[in-house]
Write a structure and sequence with these properties.
alpha+beta, 11 helices, 19% strand, binds ligand L6N33NVT, binds fe (ii) ion, oxidoreductase
Length: 402
């Protein structure tokens, strides 16, 4: 192996960014040969990484989440471009069930490029979705898209700065938690010296679906969640409410704005609440998920039949002049809080074409009146511009940074 390669392999940042950048350029000078994929890649288990939109937004929702928000440790655009190139190369491989760079068992005298815990696991429908927070643009002196603004304060918010914000984010979703965690861990490793994790969240039990024919999942309050979500196949509604169009900068077209909220549930109080009150809070029945006035889950919603301060009535597009978002949240439990209460809730993820016409008006209405507020509290928050899809040979954010 030439000296240069060895030296790069032996320095963390050199290994990380060098390996990915080489792979993007097709040069591969860090490793001697591109290894054959060694992990099983069963049919249907991998979601294409390249395309007009980033996977992980409208694609079917997987069972598990590992979400990470990062802070840049540099204001050098060059360093960030090198990291994004390396991230993209690694993401394209991991989503295809391939090991990162030279693999988990490459050169004997250097730390392996891949950490190895996903060896032998299928792709598990892994998707990796990247977004840029408002501070990313400020730090790198790049023009911020008009629609990317810090979220306003909402009544009742108790946001922890240590679980909020971030210059970049990565949403990793997979059907196997080990695959999602492996993906984020390897991106963190590659980004060493350029970006570091500010906060992260593991999630299980998706609380929304983009596949209406499948059984609707339930949240930790026991209610079906995602019934009225936008279907991933509904191109018209996605174009109208989720994908950025001509109004956005070119690099955002086909992309979307992500709002992430860590919402704690006061589970113990909820569990002492009567079924009637629980159902009144949502305006839907618990077992079937039927809207008040109907008998089946997908019966039409008649707002007048629901309590005026019920969650679904307040959040419904007909109450808000048509406002619609794509929900993609997950349940979380992070142990207990020292007072014996479960630190559990909903990690709410919503994609939209414009937060001012999506999350913000809905949350204003909910924060003002929702009877659910007695049982929940928003404790973490982030907003990110997720660029359009990546084309083969390109990298995340290329249109913005090049
Ligand atoms: C600002 C947006 C929303 C937040 C925050 C939010 C929190 C939240 N939601 C549930 C449980 C349910 N939500 C349901 C429907 C629903 N929720 C929102 C928006 C937010 N929810 C919308 C836009 C809708 C759809 C309204 C409609 O068009 O009918 C439901 C009902 C089933 C469904 O359609 O998904 C449940 C249940 C919790 C527990 C929660 C915070 C912890
Ligand atoms: Fe909701």
């Amino acid at each position: 192996m030439p000296d240069l390669s060895r030296r790069r392999l032996l320095t963390g940042a050199g290994l990380a960014v060098g390996a990915g950048a080489a792979a993007v350029a097709g040069a591969g000078f860090v490793r001697q040969a591109q290894p054959e994929p060694v992990r099983a890649d069963s049919p249907g288990a991998s979601i294409p990484f390249h395309g007009p939109h980033q996977a992980g937004i409208a694609t079917p929702v997987q069972d598990r989440l590992h979400f990470a928000a990062f802070d840049l440790s540099t204001d050098s655009r060059e360093a960030v471009v090198a990291m994004l190139k390396a991230w993209t190369a690694a993401a394209a491989r991991m989503t295809a069930a391939q090991e990162v760079g030279g693999g988990a068992t490459g050169a004997e005298l250097a730390p392996p490029d891949d950490t190895g815990e996903a060896i032998g696991l299928p792709a598990s429908r892994l998707t990796l979705t990247v977004g840029f927070g408002p501070t990313f643009f400020d730090k790198l002196k790049l023009p911020r898209p008009d629609r990317l603004k810090e979220l306003p304060h909402f009544p009742g918010d108790k946001l922890d700065p240590a679980r909020s914000g971030g210059d970049l984010c990565v949403q990793a979703c997979a059907d196997d938690p080990q695959v999602a965690v492996h993906a984020v861990r390897n991106l963190v490793r590659i980004g060493f010296g350029t970006a570091s994790v500010r906060w992260s969240q593991l999630g299980f039990g998706k609380t929304s679906s983009t596949t209406p024919d499948a059984q609707t999942p339930r949240n930790l309050m026991g209610f079906k969640d995602g019934t009225a979500n936008i279907a991933g196949t509904d191109g018209k509604r996605l174009d109208e409410h989720v994908w950025v169009g001509e109004e956005g900068p070119e690099w955002m077209r086909g992309g979307s704005y992500l709002v992430a909220r860590r919402i704690r549930m006061h589970i113990e109080t909820w569990d002492r609440t009567s079924l009637k009150e629980q159902e009144d809070i949502f305006g839907r029945t618990k077992r079937e998920g039927a809207p008040y006035g109907g008998t089946r889950e997908h019966d039409p919603v008649v707002l007048a039949k629901m309590p005026v301060d019920s969650h679904v009535r307040l959040a419904h597009p007909d109450s808000l002049g048509g406002v619609t978002i794509l929900r993609r949240g997950y349940s979380f439990t992070d142990g207990s809080d020292g007072l014996g209460r479960l630190d559990a809730g909903l990690f709410f993820l919503a994609y939209q074409r414009d937060p001012e016409k999506g999350f913000i008006p809905i949350q204003r209405a909910l924060a003002a009146k929702d009877t659910l507020n007695e049982y929940i509290q928003h404790v973490g928050s982030g907003v990110f511009a997720c660029p359009g899809g990546v084309q083969p040979g390109s990298y995340w954010g290329a249109g913005l940074l090049t």
